[in-house]
Design goal:
It holds the Pfam family Defensin_beta_2. One of its GO terms (biological process) is innate immune response. InterPro entries: Beta-defensin (IPR050544), Beta_defensin_dom (IPR025933). Residues 22-51 form the Beta-defensin domain. There is one protein chain. By secondary structure, the protein is α+β, with helices and mostly antiparallel strands. The chain has a domain at 18-56. It has one helix at residues 2-15; strands at 22-23, 28-31, 39-43, 49-52. It has a 4-stranded antiparallel beta sheet with strand order 1-2-4-3, with no helix packed on it. A hairpin with a 5-residue loop joins β3 (39-43) and β4 (49-52). It starts with a helix and ends in a 24-residue tail after the last strand.
Length: 76
């Protein structure tokens, strides 16, 4: 009986984990600070950023001009 009580005392606090909020199509997680290997593009709420691994972020394949801008040069 004491062994069961000890087991429950140790395991019950471990089971009470805060649920993780997913974002970016379930590829990202809402955190206050992103890991070094993650980037963020949108906010989850006022305090949290949607941290996503860059491999899940689509690459913009638009052509760029010599200045690196994706905008068209102004017509003269």
């Amino acid at each position: 009986m004491k062994l069961i009580l000890l087991f429950l005392t140790v395991t019950l606090p471990l089971a009470q984990v805060i649920p993780v909020t997913k974002c970016w199509g379930k590829s990202g997680r809402c955190r206050t600070m992103c890991k070094e290997s993650e980037v963020f593009y949108i906010l989850c709420n006022a305090e949290a950023k949607c941290c996503v691994n860059p491999k899940y972020v689509p690459v913009n394949t638009g052509s760029s001009n010599s200045s690196g801008s994706l905008r068209e040069p102004p017509a003269v």
